[in-house]
Amino acid sequence: MSEVQGTVEFSVELHKFHNVDLFQRGYYQIRAGLKIPSRIPHRLFATIAGQTGDSSLCSACVHENNVYSRIFQILYRNEEIILNESMNFRVHLLLDGERVEDALNEADFQLKLDLHFTDSEQQLRDVPAIPMISSRTLCLHFHPRRGLHHHVPVMFDYFHLSVVSVTVHASLVALHQPLISFARPGKGSWLGKGNLEAGPDQSSMSLENLVFGAGYCKPTSSEGSFYVPSENCMQHAYKWHKDLCLLLLNAQRGLHTYYTLIMNEIPDLPQLKLEELSVEETLSQLCMELQVFPSSEPAHRFFKSIFQVHWDSPAIH
């Protein structure tokens, strides 16, 4: 199996924390983490939107790709705390290059929200050690074309009765040849309980066959860089390139459609005019740019061009 690197971005915002009936006064914190199945080789990067400089108890922070909210004190029943903390999770995944959209549809993304508590001011000196008292996991039904846009109240368990309102947005933002190394699940691993191995970069071994199809034969050393793929191989490459471009363009359209809907529903928001991208016209332009590449050019130059046309086009970005 040859692979393609896909990048999905999740934007998460914690809005309000409402104490319905917490039993204990003290200091609370919410921690958010994105979970990806270990069967999918991936790299995860968490950041806090707009944060500059060092963190403190009064601000959110990132610890081992989990985002910690600021520490807040709860004193009264039905007390409400405004958090308004935004975070981003950027996930790079290795996907089956022949079924990219299906692989993204099947990815089981989960958002884990943990509630931590201490009544000791001294323990605030070691924030990571503050114990967890309740946890909730949200299954994120991500669709590569439509993205994901949800606003939900998350209620913790009966013994720690409280609610945090959460907004989650997600979108596919990139598809290209693997550019970074990925840890792969070792033998016997299940749901992250096995060893992760760096392993060789298997995807680069068969990426040319993915682009040009099963009928492509890698040139021998005597043919060198002058080997020209057959017409069938070229047609396969054109279709593969078109499918990936269409997926990205539809992802962009899905994001634009949701943005327009929100602007119409909430007219008080700043009305930023975004250029609407014509999927059909842009797709035709991208395909045309690739097909004008001389078919007599060596395979390795065409192979390089297929990704340059795909990713350097301003329409994609």
TrEMBL record:
Report any Pfam family annotated for this entry: DUF3657
InterPro entries membership: DUF3657, Lipase-like
Highest taxon of the lineage: Eukaryota
The record's section on PANTHER family has:
LIPASE ROG1-RELATED-RELATED (PTHR12482), PROTEIN FAM135B (PTHR12482:SF3)
What is the designated name of this protein? Family with sequence similarity 135 member B
Tell me what organism the protein belongs to: Cyanistes caeruleus (Eurasian blue tit)
Q: What is the lineage of its organism?
A: Eukaryota, Metazoa, Chordata, Craniata, Vertebrata
